[in-house]
């Protein structure tokens, strides 16, 4: 199919490609190239849209590398899952409707489910299960936060427009004519980005070394609580003082950048927030769960009561936040098949494995496995729903064209039906 | 006439909307509705002799879906395994999908367990506007039961700003009308009026006539404005109020002041047990049930639900960040979640174990029961535990037995803290609620208070065939735990405690009219606050039906006729 003339496909359009789900841009089709262009969106949206055309994909399902019909591919996937004693569902790049369908298929097959990047999600979850947290949503940060502390570095890779959405540099917001922005850690690019933020009106910035993050967070926690913290750097003492003096401090963290044992850091930061809330106001904002993972986690939780890294096993509903990690299961060969889902991007590829592999997702996914079924992308070829970064606001996604590809939920529903009852 | 008919033969029909005297007779269903007895024999004939037949139960205040409910599940993995840590077994019924939880159940589990108990509708009382779509998604995944939600207002910065600036009342009313429509709500709830916002400004307490530290408005103004606007918008369920100072000793003063603030406007005071505390006695914590009951008896504009506490583990999930933060130190287990939400509201999730041996918990238990038994008019009382805050909804049969069986109640009284058992007014209350009164508090009154009594909450001709058939037993707890038959819109959905059909529930909501001119202000507000675009915010009928609710029916409630 060709595009007759440049035209707007969706305005406004809700971008599903980062945590912020910005909904103010317009998507256009370019007649000359058949490509999509977007006005008023970030680099992340531009990059992601480059993986789509202005017209629907003509990709077809494949079985063992051979192009085939959807019926045959569904049947082949059902055969693989039926033969599997312990399937793993990974990737999980989908939306609410896809997650609902995944849950049914997971129950029918006893599959363990873990998202791409599931380790970071699990680290956040475990701190929540152990101690809880106090968080704020984007609009609270925007309208209220006079002190924003980011660690490690700035969250620009996951959420390029974070500081625009957070109102940093917007002097019209009555409660926060002046803000102070602190970056703990961060590389040279992030230092440069921070300096640029510091040139915005009403914004002062400061970069502090993160050093050994465990020691730094422990010291900060002690300082905020007024406990002895011998050897604490002066800059950290000053930060603790700033946090205590702020009207509403927000600590923005990215679990995916905290490394192994990051849960300890998350817990430490949550403790700082808790301590501050005894006398002033503060909140954390944990950014993660992009590419559908956070949404799928929420849907599984509400349906079953249990989050990801769970399964309907022989003994019942089992939740194992450590043992059910996808990497560990594959390394231990504790699973014997893998169903991979990535609807939003061809870049989320399944891990190297010799297990029977079913891939459902973006038509350009390079790994096709034994069964490959290209499916529609919510927000491009079909409607959908995702949670925003804060896990509170769920936004509707609207298609920019009527897709020829089936939706993930259609495909999963057919596979579920094709299994023996 | 065509359509499949069912006769429930010879049951004792308890249908308070028709009469407070129950009668033994047949009840007929054709397809989805109750009909007059036809001439032809029934397609299905069910022997209901020895049974009590009631309309399906309606829980008008139960936290079944949305952000804080899902946070409760995430916080409490221990609620989703057995006490010894082993997994909860998968369902043996092939109609059920695996789902579990006691005080924080999965939505699937919630739907199945409500239906098995004879309930056919449940209303989520605290839907944050920014989280409305999520709440509807969860309710849509709660099978079989009809549902609806009250949207939270009165802590949103826009409302407080408009009130503080003295903007025209009509504009505030229009904004409320827009919010109700956009979020597909069934009513409006205010939680700690102004207090959730005040906590964001580091205010730790807000009495009814105390000013919000930033906006300089009082809870009295907030309550009155919201109640008046709902009246004028014609929303059938009046303002649903979670009052100021929840859980604080002496908060009966705030409660009575809140009633006074209404100046005769209709309102529903929710989980009133948590707001009926005095300061007498050695522990400066006492029952104010008598004062509360006196106020309710004297103010016909006010209805209540109780929020009875039940002993054992639960989780308190509330929009009242201010009070939940204050209570977080007594969390059990020791962990809690709080959040400031989107210039709209907040939430606090604090797990809690109510103990019989605790003086305070024992007194809370007694206060709830005293309120049930001291308020004279059952039509203004709904039976709730404020699930899960006072206890999980699955404890309703036990609660019903406490209310209907004085000797059982007195037995239980002997198990609680001895100082409470010896001194509480409950010990001397002889009243036992009748089956008819229970039917009022669990279906007829909620249906009326919600404005859905045309089709729901009764068994008259033309009523929706939401029906529970209970085998009469001396043990009311056993009787109300496992009805023999439960019908939802005429479909047999449970038989003797086993789900027999899984249908999608319908969504109750209300669509008041308002001046569309308000959208200009709202568009500006949404843009500057950095929230989502106005158009993405609103939930359409199509989205509600097909995306949220698996094609379940849309059940718009009629507006109040006397609206301006």
Protein model, in words:
Chain A has a seven-stranded mixed β-sheet with strand order 5-4-18-17-16-6-7, with helices on one face. Chain A has a five-stranded parallel β-sheet with strand order 11-10-9-12-13, sandwiched between helices. A three-stranded antiparallel β-sheet of chain A has the order 1-2-3, covered by helices on one side. Chain A starts with 6 loop residues before the first strand and ends with a helix. Helix content of chain A is 33%, strand content 22%. Chain A has 421 residues and is an alpha/beta fold. Chain B is an alpha/beta fold and 564 residues long. Chain B has 19 helices and 24 strands. In chain B, strands 1, 2, 3, 4, 5, 19, 20, 21 and 22 form a nine-stranded mixed β-sheet that branches. In chain B, helix 5 crosses helix 7 (219-233), helix 9 packs parallel to helix 11 and helix 12 crosses helix 13. The mean pLDDT of chain B is 97. Chains A and B meet through helix 3, helix 4, strand 8, helix 5 and helix 11 of A and helix 1, helix 2, helix 3 and strand 16 of B. Strand 8 (132-136) of chain A pairs parallel with strand 16 (336-341) of chain B, so a sheet runs across the interface.
């Amino acid at each position: 199919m060709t595009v007759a003339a440049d035209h707007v496909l969706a305005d406004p359009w809700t971008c599903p490609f980062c945590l912020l789900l910005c909904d103010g841009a317009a998507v256009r089709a370019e007649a000359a190239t058949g490509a999509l262009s977007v006005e008023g969106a970030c680099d992340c949206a531009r990059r992601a849209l480059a993986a789509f055309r202005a017209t629907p994909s003509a990709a077809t399902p494949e079985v063992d590398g051979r192009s085939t019909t959807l019926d045959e591919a569904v049947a082949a996937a059902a055969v693989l899952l039926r033969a599997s004693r312990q399937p793993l569902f990974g990737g999980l790049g989908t939306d609410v409707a896809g997650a609902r369908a995944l849950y049914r298929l997971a129950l029918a097959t006893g599959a363990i489910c873990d998202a791409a990047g599931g380790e970071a999600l699990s680290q956040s979850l475990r701190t929540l299960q152990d101690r809880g947290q106090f968080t704020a949503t984007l609009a609270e940060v925007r309208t209220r936060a006079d002190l924003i502390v980011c660690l490690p570095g700035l969250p620009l890779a996951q959420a390029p427009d974070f500081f625009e959405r957070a109102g940093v540099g917007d002097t019209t917001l009555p409660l926060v004519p002046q803000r102070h922005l602190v970056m703990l850690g961060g590389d040279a690019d992030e230092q440069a980005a921070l300096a640029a933020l510091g040139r915005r009106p009403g914004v002062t910035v400061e970069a502090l070394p993160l050093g050994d993050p465990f020691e730094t967070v422990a010291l900060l926690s002690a300082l905020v609580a007024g406990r002895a913290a011998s050897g604490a750097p002066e800059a950290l003492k000053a930060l603790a003082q700033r946090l205590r003096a702020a009207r509403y401090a927000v600590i923005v963290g990215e679990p995916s950048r905290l490394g192994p044992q990051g849960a300890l850091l998350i817990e430490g930061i949550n403790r700082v927030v808790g301590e501050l809330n005894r006398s002033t106001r503060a909140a954390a904002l944990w950014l993660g769960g992009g590419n559908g993972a956070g949404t799928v986690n929420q849907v599984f939780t509400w349906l079953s009561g249990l989050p990801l890294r769970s399964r309907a096993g022989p003994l019942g509903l089992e939740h194992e936040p450590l043992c059910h990690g996808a990497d560990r299961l594959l390394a231990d060969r504790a699973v014997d098949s893998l169903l991979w889902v990535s609807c939003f991007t061809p870049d989320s590829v399944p891990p190297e494995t010799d297990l029977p592999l079913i891939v459902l997702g973006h038509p350009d996914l390079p790994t096709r496995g034994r069964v490959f079924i290209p499916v529609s992308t919510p927000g491009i070829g079909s409607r959908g729903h995702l949670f925003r970064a804060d896990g509170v606001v769920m936004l509707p996604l609207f298609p920019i064209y009527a897709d020829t590809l089936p939706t993930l939920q259609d495909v999963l529903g057919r596979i579920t039906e094709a299994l023996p009852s | 006439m065509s359509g499949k008919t069912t006769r429930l033969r010879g049951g004792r029909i308890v249908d308070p909307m028709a009469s407070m005297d129950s009668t033994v007779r047949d009840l007929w269903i054709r397809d989805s509705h109750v009909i007059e007895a036809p001439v032809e024999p029934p397609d299905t004939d069910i022997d209901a002799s020895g049974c009590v037949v009631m309309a399906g139960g309606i829980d008008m205040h139960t936290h079944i879906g949305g952000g804080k409910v899902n946070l409760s599940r995430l916080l409490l993995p221990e609620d989703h395994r057995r006490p010894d840590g082993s997994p909860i077994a998968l369902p043996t019924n092939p109609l059920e999908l695996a789902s579990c939880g006691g005080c924080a159940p999965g939505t699937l589990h919630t739907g199945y367990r409500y239906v098995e108990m004879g309930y056919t509708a449940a209303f989520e009382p605290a839907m944050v506007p920014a989280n409305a779509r999520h709440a509807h998604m969860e309710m849509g995944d709660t099978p079989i039961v009809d549902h609806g939600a009250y949207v939270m207002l009165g802590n949103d910065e826009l409302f407080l700003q408009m009130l503080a600036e003295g903007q025209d009342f009509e504009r505030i009313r229009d904004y409320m009308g827009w919010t109700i429509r956009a979020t597909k709500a069934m009513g409006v709830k205010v939680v700690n009026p102004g207090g959730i916002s005040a906590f964001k400004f580091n205010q730790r307490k807000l009495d009814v006539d105390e000013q919000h530290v930033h906006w300089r408005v009082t809870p009295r103004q907030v309550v009155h404005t919201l109640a008046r606007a709902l009246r004028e918008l014609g929303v059938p369920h009046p303002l649903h109020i979670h009052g100021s100072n929840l859980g604080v000793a002496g908060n009966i003063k705030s409660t009575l002041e809140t009633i006074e603030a209404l100046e005769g406007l209709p309102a529903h005071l929710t989980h009133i047990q948590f707001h009926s505390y005095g300061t007498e006695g050695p522990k400066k914590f006492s029952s104010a049930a008598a004062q509360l009951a006196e106020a309710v008896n004297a103010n016909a504009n006010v209805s209540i639900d109780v929020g009875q506490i039940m002993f054992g583990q639960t989780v308190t999930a509330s929009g009242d960040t201010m009070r939940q933060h204050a209570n977080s130190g007594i969390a059990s287990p020791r962990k809690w979640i709080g959040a400031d939400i989107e210039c709209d509201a907040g939430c606090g999730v604090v797990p809690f174990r109510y103990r019989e041996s605790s003086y305070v918990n024992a007194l809370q238990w007694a206060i709830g029961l005293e309120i049930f038994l001291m308020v004279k008019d059952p039509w203004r009382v709904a039976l709730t535990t404020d699930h899960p805050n006072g206890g999980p909804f699955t404890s309703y049969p036990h609660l019903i037995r406490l209310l209907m069986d004085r000797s059982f109640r007195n037995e239980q009284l002997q198990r609680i803290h001895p100082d409470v058992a010896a001194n509480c007014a409950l010990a001397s209350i002889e009243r036992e609620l009748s089956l008819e009164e229970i039917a009022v508090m669990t279906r007829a009154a909620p249906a009326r208070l919600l404005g859905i009594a045309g089709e729901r909450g009764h068994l008259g001709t033309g009523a929706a065939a939401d029906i529970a058939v209970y085998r009469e037993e001396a043990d009311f707890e056993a009787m109300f735990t496992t009805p023999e038959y439960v019908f939802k819109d005429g479909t047999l959905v449970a038989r003797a405690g086993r789900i027999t059909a899984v249908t999608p529930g319908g969504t109750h909501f209300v669509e008041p009219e308002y001046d569309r001119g308000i959208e200009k202000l709202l568009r500006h507000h949404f843009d500057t606050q950095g929230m989502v675009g106005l158009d993405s915010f609103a939930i359409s009928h199509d989205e509600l039906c097909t995306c949220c609710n698996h094609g379940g029916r849309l059940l718009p409630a009629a507006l109040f006729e006397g609206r301006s």
